[in-house]
Fold this protein.
Amino acid sequence: AIDFIKSLLKFDPNERLTAAQALEHPYFADYHDPEDEPTSQPFACDFENDENLTEEDCRALIYEEIAAFRKKMEESQL
């Protein structure tokens, strides 16, 4: 389980597991069923590949994205 978590929490997106790779990890061996798992296009998070972006800037952009998503969800429930 620790290896799995470490693979998901890599700061560099190019080193991080994809969703498909995560489902193939031994931690999920008992639950993995390729015949019953939908796929989609990769999620684009373009700012992650900006080499000039500091960790603090990245955190701020993620926070802004979460705040915008929450606001959108709250508005849709009204």
